[in-house]
Design goal:
The chain is mainly beta. It has a domain at about 40-145 and about 155-165: AOC barrel-like (Beta Barrel), CATH 2.40.350. Helix content is about 10%, strand content about 50%. The chain is built from two helices and eleven strands. The strands form three sheets. A five-stranded antiparallel beta sheet has the order 4-5-6-7-11. The protein is elongated and about 95 Å long. The chain starts with a helix and ends in a 6-residue tail after the last helix. Keywords: Signal.
């Protein structure tokens, strides 16, 4: 009983109050938060093809990141279309993979920098409809497969920052 006689007047008083903004001092420091510009990977001279009279296939491209860095990436494999596991190294900190996934192929590119604390990655799915075959009627053994995809394109990268997940790094 005593509890309700104290609480009810306080609740009725609180319900009549309105929030009023308080102006900050002119000397207050306000930090502007800028939207992080997304990292873009630029791919040029992309190819993936076999060769006539060869059991090998080749994949390659030139990679450049808007966050800094560039590399030439390539691999030679057996088979009609070159596949290579992620992480096939291009240069230190940059690697790629090109794997068979479902009804197509998945190109994955990873860029590690700032002592491996920042990792940008991007993926591109290329459906089987882009796989073509060169038919040499004069020499049937000279047939080979290739990926018919634009040689130049850009990919939006996904950023991952290690410190954001694990907290601040201790200075020892």
């Amino acid at each position: 009983m005593k509890f309700t006689t104290v609480i009810l007047p306080l609740l009725s008083l609180a319900s009549g109050l309105t929030a009023t903004p308080i102006a900050a001092d002119e000397s207050s420091i306000i930090e502007a938060r800028q939207a992080k510009v997304a990292t873009v990977f630029t791919i040029t001279n992309f190819f993936n093809y076999g060769r006539p009279h060869s059991s090998q296939s080749f994949i390659g491209f030139e990679w450049k990141s808007s966050s800094g860095g560039k590399a030439n990436c390539s691999a030679t494999k057996t088979g009609n279309i070159a596949t290579t596991p992620l992480y096939t190294r291009c240069v230190p900190g940059v690697g790629f993979g090109f794997d068979r996934v479902g009804g197509g192929y998945l190109l994955s590119i990873v860029h590690r920098y700032k002592k491996n604390k920042n990792i940008d990655s991007a993926n591109l799915y290329i459906p089987d409809e882009h796989v073509k075959r060169t038919n040499n009627t004069a020499n049937p053994n000279g047939n080979y497969d290739y990926i018919d995809y634009p040689s130049n394109f850009t990919l939006q990268a996904n950023a991952f920052i290690i410190d954001a997940v694990h907290g601040p790094v201790r200075n020892v």
